[in-house]
Automatic annotation (TrEMBL):
Lineage: Eukaryota, Fungi, Dikarya, Ascomycota, Pezizomycotina
Matching Pfam families: GGACT
UniProt key word Lyase: yes
Entry annotated with the keyword Transmembrane helix: no
Alphabetical list of InterPro entries matching this protein: AIG2-like_dom, G-Glutamylcylcotransferase, GGCT-like, GGCT-like_sf
Sequence segments annotated as region (Disordered): 226-253
Protein name in UniProt: gamma-glutamylcyclotransferase
Keywords: Lyase
Position of the signal peptide: none
Length: 314
């Protein structure tokens, strides 16, 4: 009797140690949709840096007191291939190494949960709230476990300390927000990452109560934005009214002077010269028309005959 079809082997998976922008769960969902969250871990005898390319990197050091903290995901071959592209392995931006890590496995709701599920629930913090328990309770670990072959992307060509790219700052801060909920210590963030990555603007430092901004640059609203035309103004403010242009009024001298400076700075500006001539010349006076009105002329003739006075009207 012929044997039936054998079940296909499950996809081989491995642990991936993330220490940069892939700390952000939402970014991991875009890059590695099949990945699962395992826990947070520590890579000993390495230090965290921003290299001259403007991105995160880890550098080996001869010091047992130095380490890099990160998050661990379980990925399959498809996700690994996508990571290779995103990390620029073919361009020698990063190289792949398998290193020992000290893993603090998550327990309860988050352990081995697909990152897509965590994102759909609103992120790690939202999962904690929905589970109606504190984050520390949710992340109680059964203990530290040593894992000897976690995948780590390292750059050996770019190891000089430098400043981050502008767009990278926000991505790192989003990742740190997730990582701090998932167990990364505030002391590590403050001592190892903040020297390179400025933190988001604190809510108390934002003007006019603009809370909740995660960007490092706070945008201040102009005062006139949001003011309705009918709102009462302060006593020292002038009403915002527009005056219709007067066609017979000569142009403002400042405008003519500004246009003259523009012409001097731009030798090839015939249109501006013609416009300046038109503005500098007084407007033509309107033509005066004579109004023809019919008139009547009266002639009177006087005559006197022997004491009588005669008058005739023609």
């Amino acid at each position: 009797m012929a044997a039936g079809p054998q079940p296909s082997n499950p996809r081989s998976t491995k642990y991936y140690f993330a220490y940069g922008s892939n700390l952000h769960i939402k970014q991991m969902k875009r890059r590695c949709p099949n990945s699962r969250y395992i826990g947070h871990a520590r890579l000993s005898r390495y230090r965290w840096q921003i290299n001259q390319r403007g991105y995160a990197n880890v550098v080996a050091v001869d010091d047992d007191g130095r380490w890099v903290d990160g998050l661990v995901y379980e990925i399959d071959e498809t996700d690994e291939a996508k990571l290779d592209v995103n990390e620029g392995v073919s361009k020698n931006a990063y190289e792949k190494r398998y290193l020992p890590i000290l893993l603090h496995r998550a327990s309860g709701t988050l352990y081995r949960r697909p990152v897509s599920w965590i994102v759909s629930k609103g992120g790690p913090a939202a999962v904690c709230r929905q589970a109606k328990c504190a984050a520390q309770e949710l992340l109680v670990s059964p203990g530290q476990q040593r894992h000897d072959d976690a995948l780590v992307y390292i750059s050996f060509r770019h190891v000089e300390d430098s400043v981050p790219k502008e767009e990278y700052i926000d991505r790192i801060n989003l990742g740190l927000a997730d990582a701090s909920v998932l167990g990364m210590k505030d002391d590590y963030i403050r001592n190892c990452i903040r020297p390179y990555i400025p933190g988001p603007v604190a809510e108390s430092a934002l003007p006019d109560g603009n809370h909740g901004m995660s960007s490092t640059k706070a945008k201040v609203k102009p005062e006139n934005i949001g003011v309705k035309r009918g709102d009462p103004l302060e006593s020292h403010e002038r009403p915002l009214t527009r005056r219709a242009p007067d066609p017979g009024r000569p142009p403002d001298e400042r405008y003519v002077q500004a246009m003259a400076r523009t012409i001097r700075n731009n030798a090839s500006a015939p249109n501006l010269r013609r416009r300046l001539h038109e503005l500098a010349s007084p407007p033509p006076r309107p033509l005066r028309r004579l109004l023809q009105v019919p008139t009547a002329v009266t002639l009177e003739d006087y005559a006197s005959i022997e004491g009588w006075e005669w008058r005739s009207v023609l």
